[in-house]
Amino acid sequence: MNIESICIVGLGLMGGSLGLSLKKLYPDTTICGYDHNEKHKIDALNLKLVDKIINSKDDIMACDVIFLCIPVDAIIAINKELIGISKNSTIIDMGSTKEQISNEIPASIRVNLVASHPMTGTENSGPLAAINDLYGNKTVVLCDTEKSGIKQLQIAEEIFNKLNMNIVYMDSISHDKHAAFISHAPHAISFALANSVLNQEDHKSIIALAGGGFKDMSRIAQSSPAMWEAIFRQNRTNVLESIECFKNELTKCQDMIKEEKWEELKDWMGKANNLHDIL
Amino acid sequence: MNIESICIVGLGLMGGSLGLSLKKLYPDTTICGYDHNEKHKIDALNLKLVDKIINSKDDIMACDVIFLCIPVDAIIAINKELIGISKNSTIIDMGSTKEQISNEIPASIRVNLVASHPMTGTENSGPLAAINDLYGNKTVVLCDTEKSGIKQLQIAEEIFNKLNMNIVYMDSISHDKHAAFISHAPHAISFALANSVLNQEDHKSIIALAGGGFKDMSRIAQSSPAMWEAIFRQNRTNVLESIECFKNELTKCQDMIKEEKWEELKDWMGKANNLHDIL
User: Fold this and answer.
1) Can you give the pLDDT at residue B279?
2) Of all residues in chain B, what percent are helix, strand and coil, respectively (each to 5)?
3) B116 — phi, psi (to 5°)?
4) How many of the other CB atoms lie within 10 Å of CB of B106?
């Protein structure tokens, strides 16, 4: 498919890394970037994450494909401003929640949207966090694709295939439930773990002992509060439910330790070991 | 210092990796291995983790330095059997708990013991999990060193320095409190996270979406139940306390989401971000 121009809205880790990959995969396409942060625009140009920066809504709307790599509340807001976009244009949002984004885009441009969630990232943010091949060999979930135009879906699939991603299809309600368990609750847990250690009087002596396990478990506690507030807000019910399920398991563990049920505790840990046969 | 022979008791991940390093660092020393598991002995020899396998308590006690790389309950048990060991011998245990090990070794051989905890490892176990340089650039905690003989402490320090480890000194009570926060509770959390996902009816679809965050958070849920049961048992009070502190933080997070206190939630996540300035 001939794509003349792609605009990436949001030049942080996700958008910036996408720019790096698209510039290689689509050498004949103009990769444009938009960001509301002036410094991000300059950094993105200096780092050659995009070919050029554009500054107006009209310029964004003139692109064949528009990737939205911004917080999930900003995705909903910008979608409302894209009313009147050409029926040939494709909007691909990359938000970590899908139900509200899929439902709240104005009906007249719903066909333009392919609601996607690439299951990749790092704990870092901003254009300087952009890395090569962030997307390769990762899974991307496409949601409610029956609501996307045929052409739009084809374009999105073509791009994700070129990025060497594994495409999974799912309705947005299931996605949001699953994402709460596999991504959103783990972020809440990591933030809580970091804070529980920082709350200790002698936290510096404690942290000095950190090995690989703790470093892994607290890595995503470095994630952007603004981005995660919006995710927790949009997926509030599912996030609360998945945190509750996790807490129930942890309470089980506590109770077994408290009541010295060591055989039961071993069985429970042995069950957890099974995860890695599936993962 | 001239060390003629070193015995590694327990040829799993920790002991096996130690063998690999010691064979390089001490080419003129005989590195002996002992394991109660016959297959581990054969694997360790085949993988050249040690120079030779020894099979009797007398052979173990005849070595200049004895490393105990076995579960923490087994360390306590074997220490009781080492009564009568030469006053020139050094026992270095590598257990993840320190208070009981430091206190329960028979008084007559307490000077022989250097109670240590290397803050390193992987989620894997057994001789096949042994890797090169598991110890380099990692922290090792030495506890209650005033109870160790001068010679024994010097030997332990020399070996850990040769392994290129960062030595930290601490009383065993503080160690066990700190280790509960930085290592033991995170393991309980990881096991609970794995089980909370496995409990879901559609866990396979959920796990198919796992990105780097979940993989990191659940990595140590693959750890050995037998090893961790003994750690949770020996450090029961501290582990329960640190899990409780963590749960309080997570409940705070839940409450902020439930009550839609988004600004407060952002501040709380921002606080967690600070961890990485220290880590």
Assistant:
1) 86
2) 55, 15, 30
3) -130, 155
4) 15
Nearest Cα neighbor of A138 from A111, A116, A114 is A116
pLDDT tens digits for range B71-98: 999 999 999 999 999 999 999 999 999 9
CATH code, residues A5-170: 3.40.50.720
> Using only C-alpha atoms, what is the Rg of chain B?
21
A253, A254, A258: which to substitute to probe chain B, counting the most B Cβ within 10 Å?
A253
Query: Would the CB atoms of A188 and B139 count as touching at under 8 Å?
Result: no
Output phi, psi for B31, to 5 deg: -100, 110
Residue A80 CB neighbours (<10 A): 11
Of B275, B274, B269, B279, the closest CA to residue B249 belongs to B269
- How high is the mean pLDDT of chain A? 97
Contacts of A274 in chain B (CB under 8 A): 198
Which residues in chain B touch residue A243, judged by CB atoms under 8 angstroms apart? 250, 253-254, 257
Distance, CA of B252 to CA of A63 (rounded, Å): 44
- Residue range B175-278 forms a domain whose CATH class is mainly alpha
Inspect the interface and report whether the beta carbons of B183 and A214 lie closer than 8 Å. yes
Distance in angstroms (rounded) separating the CA atoms of residues B5 and B201:
55
Q: Is A179 in contact with B209 (Cβ distance < 8 A)? A: yes
Cβ-based neighbours of B245, under 8 Å, separated by 6 or more: A196, A199, A200, B181, B185
Q: What Å distances lie between residue A98 and A8, A151, A156, A161, A184, CA to CA?
A: 19, 20, 16, 21, 13
The amino acid that residue B84 corresponds to is G
Banded pLDDT at A2 (limits 50, 70, 90)? confident
Q: Do A119 and B279 touch (CB under 8 A)?
A: no
Question: What is the percent of chain A where pLDDT is above 70?
Answer: 100
CB under 8 Å to A159, separation ≥6 — which residues?
Answer: A22, A25, A65, A92
Instruction: Please report residues of A whose CB lies closer than 8 A to that of B269.
Output: 191, 221, 223, 225, 228-229
Write down the mean pLDDT value for chain B: 97
- Under the banding of pLDDT at 50, 70 and 90, the label for residue B146 is very high
Please enumerate in sequence order all residues whose Cβ is within 8 A of that of A18, keeping only pairs 6 or more positions apart, or say none: A8, A67, A69, A94, A134, A135
Domain boundaries, chain A: 5-170, 175-278
Q: CB-based burial of residue B53 (10 Å sphere; 0-12 exposed, 13-18 middle, 19+ buried)?
A: middle
Of A168, A225, A232, the CB nearest to B273: A225
Give residue B18's pLDDT.
98
Contact list in A for residue B257 (CB cut-off 8 A) is 188, 232-233, 236, 239-240, 243
* Cβ–Cβ pairs < 8 A, chains A and B: 297
| Nearest by Cα to B9 from B29, B35, B30, B27 | B35
Cβ within 8 Å, pair A278-B192: no
> Among candidates B123, B135, B127, which has minimal Cα distance to B163?
B135
